[in-house]
């Protein structure tokens, strides 16, 4: 029982990070109909910024705003350098563009820094455990869950209560109609990228605390998890992305703790396979992917 | 038409020979002046050529994005390696191979065949999944499913150590003296080019390309893309399996990393840079990217001593080139260097231009099929969209020899009724019966094969196919599925609406009026019993739309089809129709001759009396 509780908390902690990543992917899918396979590059950039500042001797607390800022700026930069130019192209073009960005950023880091892994110390207090009613919980998980809740609350407020949020939802619903109503497409898309950058920044802080290292492919795994979670949630749906992230985290933790040793390495593949099967057997979308097409 | 041997057989064969000759000739000239490193590079390039041509057979013809072909390649590569390596070697590296594979030893040629078979089984499974997920041009579901294949195969390869030797060491081996020169590579490369090039001209290939251009429009003329996609996938996977086995053979080692993300990116970049819609483009992409990557490696290497490079680490250059090429082409030229340009098609066009001085032959007289006594009827069709009732008990009847109009204010349900007939919308209740067949709820392509062919309000042509190919796609379908019914040939149809002289232009280059005319004859080429026309004159000038009256009537008469037409242009409706149905708020409120409809007070009320005066009286 306590073991299960521990795993649940662990899974929710893990899932929170995925949820933040998936949310950023869903926001962009909403306004651009683009599955952003370059989302992980925000983590990569954050990792190097974090590493750089850490070696300068800055404290962990000082890294957080720097990482957030760099993640948002990178998101804007990628939008400006690549996605802006393929905005109304086919899905084919957009997906390959995001792969192109992924590989260019990765190669830039290999070129500018090194292909080697850069490790740095993680704050030790995070990985102490506290005992609540016989259940041993890692401080890290509690921090992640708490901060994620705050971030999600902030996002909900932003999307529901602000002018920007309204334009974002309108654009996600029907971009052309929103434009005719005076929503400026540049502004809303840029805003969506900044928002997804901020969410990825928060996720990046947690990710770095856990891994404590930077390398050119640091973004690959978080990108994959984020895309998978967003797919589970139905891609365009913000609520779905959060649910998808939590579900993915929980499933992973439960699978890893229960599967025999030889098969644990297959976890990612199995999750991927399940999602592919969902596409096969519920082609109308796990929540909704296709839009009604007027003929 | 399909029996144009120069265009569909001879040309492609000669083109393939020429392509192969150019590629191999260039490669040999390059190796003749260099050492062993060049030999290896060329070997790799030729094998990549097979892989990219193979991927192009699927991605190019169907437009469905696949990240999974290298996953298929991994399956083929491992199957080949495990079967072909000698038992002695296996005892060293994978002594615990399951299914008694440790003792199996097949000659390489047989191992390749088995590898193809195993990979094909996987391809059929994935293909069925893709079909069910509704794969079409650029579909995200297809990208995810194929990506899943790539990852699953990779993880299995990494973890099933007993069979694959695991993630790090993989399986290294030597099968005698490697490939004994490149004979096999040459043979298989040529075969791949030939098969890929010919496939583009086959019936299935051309129908696949039509569906690539517009899935819905293809279904509307009776093309079911599932069949074409499956055949294209199977063929492309066979080629990829052959290429992968060769790759493993030539390298003498296979690890999971060899057939994963990076190789997927390299092959896709080659395909995209050259132009995924042509075999010539695929090969050009292979050459260009190989040269580019090699140049990057050279710049990054110790031979180049430029100060500016010293502050950078040079390892990333190839990655920048690869990603940058992908990005640049996506942004500036997403159809690649050559788009769908084929060497042999170009040569044929040149020759034709030289001869085109002589005038076209006179149009052969279109022979009329026997008069039709069919009828198309919908009875009591009701459609609910959530809480909104779009149609309520709509009843429409069209005889096979008349032109019937369907009018009504915006939102009356006209297009919904057409969508019900066309198999796009399933009615909540009611039936749709055409020529004695119940087509209610049938899928769009089945409806078209049943004799109901529609056009679209917002023009849906196969944009990058030529005018002639647009019509041929429908005609190819009709030859197979409407064989019992005679129909005019493509040429007389095109001449009938006056766009024969545009036949070699791409459909998307046509002006609006001609595009509408093309959509009309494309529908007619499917040999329908009934043509359903959704606003055939929208966007046309008054003069053009009056002229369209004759076009529609003669075209319908030429195929012997009845017509149901929706339009807002009342002059057109009154000019063309024998009878007119009027819809208002989902119900039929009046039926009659155009004159009766104009006089009907209910109709006048529905239109607020504004538009229904005698034509010309504006």
Q: At the third CATH level, what is the topology name of chain A?
A: ABC transporter involved in vitamin B12 uptake, BtuC
Strand order of the largest sheet of chain B: 8-9-10-5-11-12
pLDDT < 50 runs, ≥5 residues of chain A: 287-295
Cα gyration radius of chain B (Å):
29 Å
The helix/strand series of chain A, from N terminus to C terminus, equals HHHHEEEHHHHEHHHH
Structural class of chain A: mainly alpha
Helix content of chain B: 55-70%
Give the DSSP E fraction of chain A (strand runs of 2 or more residues): under 5%
| Number of separate domains of chain A | 1
Summarize the structure.
The complex is a heterodimer of chains A (295) and B (618). Chain A has helices spanning 2-32, 40-55, 60-81, 91-112, 139-161, 163-173, 175-180, 185-211, 220-233, 238-258, 261-264, 267-281, and strands spanning 118-119, 129-132, 135-138, 213-214.
Tags for this entry?
heterodimer; A: 295 residues; mainly alpha; ABC transporter involved in vitamin B12 uptake, BtuC; two-stranded antiparallel sheet; 72% helix; 4% strand; globular; B: 618 residues; alpha/beta; Rossmann fold; 6-stranded mixed sheet; 4-stranded antiparallel sheet; 25 helices; 12 strands; elongated; disordered C terminus
Structure overview:
The complex is a heterodimer of chains A (295) and B (618). Chain A has 295 residues and is mostly helical. Chain A has one domain (2-281): ABC transporter involved in vitamin B12 uptake, BtuC. Chain A is built from twelve helices and four strands, in the order ααααβββααααβαααα. Chain A has helices spanning 2-32, 40-55, 60-81, 91-112, 139-161, 163-173, 175-180, 185-211, 220-233, 238-258, 261-264, 267-281, and strands at 118-119, 129-132, 135-138, 213-214. In chain A, the strands form two sheets. Chain A has a two-stranded antiparallel sheet with strand order 1-4. In chain A, strands 2-3 form a two-stranded antiparallel ribbon. In chain A, helix 1 (2-32) crosses helix 6. The longest helix of chain A is centred in the N-terminal third of the chain and has 31 residues, at 2-32. The radius of gyration of chain A is 19 Å and the shape is globular. The termini of chain A are far apart. Chain B has 618 residues and is α/β, with parallel strands linked by helices. Chain B has helices at residues 5-32, 36-62, 69-84, 87-93, 108-132, 140-159, 161-164, 183-201, 203-213, 215-220, 225-251, 261-274, 279-300, 307-310, 317-332, 343-355, 414-421, 444-449, 467-481, 490-496, 512-525, 542-559, 570-576, 594-599, 601-606; strands at residues 171-172, 253-254, 375-385, 388-399, 403-407, 429-434, 437-438, 452-454, 530-534, 562-566, 579-584, 587-592. A six-stranded mixed β-sheet of chain B has the order 8-9-10-5-11-12, with helices on both faces. Chain B has a four-stranded antiparallel β-sheet with strand order 4-3-6-7, with helices on one face. A two-stranded antiparallel ribbon of chain B has the order 1-2. The longest helix of chain B has 28 residues, at 5-32. Residues 357-366 and 612-618 of chain B have low confidence and may be disordered. Classes of the chains: A mainly alpha (295), B alpha/beta (618). At the A-B interface, helix 4 and helix 12 of A face helix 6, helix 12 and helix 15 of B.
């Amino acid at each position: 029982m306590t073991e299960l509780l521990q795993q649940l908390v662990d899974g929710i902690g893990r899932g929170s990070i995925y949820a933040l990543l998936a949310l950023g992917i869903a926001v962009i899918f909403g306004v651009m109909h683009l599955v952003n396979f370059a989302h992980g590059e925000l983590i990569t950039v954050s990792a190097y910024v974090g590493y750089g500042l850490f070696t300068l001797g800055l404290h962990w607390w000082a890294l957080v705003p720097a990482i957030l800022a760099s993640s948002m700026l990178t998101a804007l930069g990628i939008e400006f350098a690549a996605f802006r130019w393929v905005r109304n192209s086919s899905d084919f073009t957009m997906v390959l563009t995001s792969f192109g960005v992924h590989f260019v950023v990765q190669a830039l880091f290999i070129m500018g820094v090194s292909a080697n892994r850069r490790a740095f110390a993680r704050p030790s207090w995070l990985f102490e455990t506290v005992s609540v009613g016989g259940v041993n919980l890692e401080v890290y998980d509690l921090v992640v869950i708490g901060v994620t809740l705050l971030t999600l609350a902030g996002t909900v407020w932003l999307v529901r209560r602000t002018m920007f949020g309204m334009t974002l939802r309108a654009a996600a619903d029907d971009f052309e109609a929103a434009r005719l109503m005076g929503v400026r497409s540049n502004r809303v898309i840029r805003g969506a990228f900044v928002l997804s950058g901020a969410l990825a920044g928060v996720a990046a802080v947690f990710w770095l605390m856990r891994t404590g290292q930077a390398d050119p492919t640091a973004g690959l795994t978080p990108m994959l998890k984020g895309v998978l979670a967003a797919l589970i949630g139905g891609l365009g749906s913000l609520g779905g992305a959060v649910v998808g992230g939590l579900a993915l985290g929980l499933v992973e933790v439960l699978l890893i703790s229960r599967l025999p040793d030889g098969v644990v390495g297959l976890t990612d593949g199995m999750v991927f396979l399940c999602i592919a099967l969902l596409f096969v057997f519920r082609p109308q979308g796990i929540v909704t992917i296709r839009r009604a097409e007027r003929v | 038409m399909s029996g144009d041997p120069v265009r569909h057989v001879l040309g492609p064969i000669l083109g393939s020979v020429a392509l192969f000759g150019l590629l191999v000739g260039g490669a040999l000239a390059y190796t003749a002046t260099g050492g062993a490193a060049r030999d290896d590079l060329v070997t790799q390039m030729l094998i990549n050529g097979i892989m990219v041509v193979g991927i192009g057979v699927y991605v190019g013809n169907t437009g469905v994005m696949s990240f999974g072909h290298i996953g298929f390649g991994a399956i083929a590569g491992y199957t080949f390696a495990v079967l072909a390596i000698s038992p002695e070697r296996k005892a060293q590296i994978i002594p615990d191979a399951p299914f008694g594979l440790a003792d199996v030893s097949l000659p390489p040629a047989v191992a390749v065949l088995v590898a193809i078979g195993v990979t094909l089984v996987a391809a059929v499974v994935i293909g069925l999944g893709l079909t069910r997920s509704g794969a079409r041009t650029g579909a995200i579901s297809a990208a995810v499913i194929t990506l899943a294949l790539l990852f699953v195969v990779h993880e299995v390869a990494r973890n099933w150590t007993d069979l694959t030797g695991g993630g790090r060491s993989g399986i290294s081996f030597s099968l005698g003296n490697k490939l004994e020169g490149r004979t096999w590579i040459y043979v298989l490369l040529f075969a791949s080019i030939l098969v890929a090039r010919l496939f583009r001209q086959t019936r299935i290939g051309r129908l696949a390309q039509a569906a690539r251009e517009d899935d819905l429009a293809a279904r509307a003329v009776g093309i079911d893309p599932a069949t074409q996609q499956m055949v294209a996938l199977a063929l492309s996977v066979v080629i990829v399996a052959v290429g992968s086995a060769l790759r493993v053979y030539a390298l003498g080692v296979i690890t999971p990393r060899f057939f994963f993300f990076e190789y997927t990116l390299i092959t896709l970049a080659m395909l995209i840079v050259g132009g995924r819609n042509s075999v010539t483009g695929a090969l050009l992409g292979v050459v260009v990217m190989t040269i580019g990557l090699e140049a990057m490696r050279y710049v990054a290497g110790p031979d180049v001593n430029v100060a500016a490079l010293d502050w950078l680490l040079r390892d990333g250059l190839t990655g920048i080139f690869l990603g940058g090429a992908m990005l640049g082409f996506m942004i500036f030229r997403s159809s690649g260097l050559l788009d769908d340009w084929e060497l042999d098609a170009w040569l044929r066009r040149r020759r034709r231009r030289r001869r085109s001085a002589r005038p076209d032959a006179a149009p052969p007289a279109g022979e009329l099929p026997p008069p039709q006594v069919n009828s198309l009827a919908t009875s009591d069709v009701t459609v609910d969209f959530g809480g909104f009732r779009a149609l309520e008990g709509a009843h429409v009847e069209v005889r096979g020899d008349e032109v019937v109009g369907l009018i009504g204010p915006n939102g009356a349900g006209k297009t919904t009724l057409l969508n019900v007939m066309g198999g796009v919308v399933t009615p909540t209740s009611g039936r749709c019966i055409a020529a004695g067949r119940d087509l209610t709820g049938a899928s769009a392509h089945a409806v078209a094969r049943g004799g109901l062919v529609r056009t679209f309000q917002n023009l849906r042509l196969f944009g990058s196919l030529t005018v002639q190919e647009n019509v041929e796609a429908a005609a190819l379908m009709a030859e197979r599925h409407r064989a019992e019914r005679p129909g005019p040939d493509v040429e007389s149809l095109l001449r009938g609406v006056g766009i024969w002289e545009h036949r070699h232009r791409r459909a998307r280059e046509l002006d609006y009026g001609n595009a509408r005319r093309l959509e009309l004859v494309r529908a007619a080429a499917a040999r329908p019993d009934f043509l359903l026309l959704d606003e055939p004159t929208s966007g046309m000038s008054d003069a053009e739309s009056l002229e369209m009256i004759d076009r529609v009537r003669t075209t319908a008469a030429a195929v012997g089809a009845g017509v149901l037409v929706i339009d807002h242009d009342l002059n057109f409706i009154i000019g063309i129709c024998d009878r007119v149905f009027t819809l208002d708020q989902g119900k039929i409120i009046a039926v009659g001759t155009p004159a009766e409809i104009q006089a009907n007070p209910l109709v006048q009320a529905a239109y607020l009396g504004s538009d229904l005066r005698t034509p010309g009286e504006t």
